[in-house]
Amino acid sequence: MSSTRNPGRVAGLWYLLIIFIGPLRLIYIPSKLFVSGNATATAGNIAAHEWLFRIGMASDLVGGVVLVLLTLAFYRLFRSVDRDLATQVVIFGGVMPAIFFLFGVASDAGALMIVRGADFLSAFSKPQQDALAMLLIWLRGHLNTAAEMLWGVWLFPLATLVYRSRFLPRFLGVWLGLGGAAYVILSLTGELTPQYQNKVFTIAQPVMFGEIVLTLWLLIKGARPQADSAVAG
Description:
By secondary structure, this protein is mostly helical. 82% of the residues lie in helices and 0% in strands. It has helices at residues 7-33, 39-48, 50-78, 83-116, 126-153, 155-164, 170-192, 197-208, 210-220, 226-232.
C-alpha cells in the first residue's frame, strides 16, 4: 500500500521528520553551545560555532512548516471521524506552534547579532553584550516552556480522534492523552516551580513516547479512513 494512497503513512512520514528536526535546536545545540550561568562562555561558543547555531535556526523554520503539513495530514486522516476535533489538531498542533518557532528564530537571530558585535551595540561593553545575548537565549528557553502547553493541548483532540477511529488501536489514543497531560503539567511546572521541571520531565518520559509509537505504527502499518478503504475495496 503506497503512501500516496494511505494518508496515515503520509502523516507518519511528516511526524518522523519532526522527530529528527526538533531535537537539534531543542536539545543538541544547547548541550553543545550553552553554558549555564556563564554568558561569556556561551557567547564565545556561539561565535566559534556560528554555522551550527544558524543550522539550528534553519531547522526551526523548516520545523514550523513541517508541523503545519503534519497536522493537515492528520486533518485529512481524521476529518471523517470528527471534523471539529481535526480542526483543533491543525490549530493547536500546527499553526500556533509554528508561530512559536518563528518567534524563537527571531530571538536566536537577535542573540547572534549581539555575539557578532553589531556596530550600534558599541555603547555596551563586551560583558554587557554577552549578558544581552544570554538574556535572549534564556528568553528562547522560556518560549519553549510556554510552547509545551501547546505540545500537550494538541494531543487531546488527536488522542480522542485516534481512540474514536476504528483504523487505529485505542491504546494509542490513551497513550497520547497521557502524553498531552504530561506536557501541560511540565509547562505549568516550568512557570510555577521551575526547580522541579527536570524532575517532572524525567518522570513523564514514558508517557511522552506515545508520539513515537504512533509514528512507527503509521509508517509501518499505515492508516486509512473507512470511507477511503471502502472506495479502494
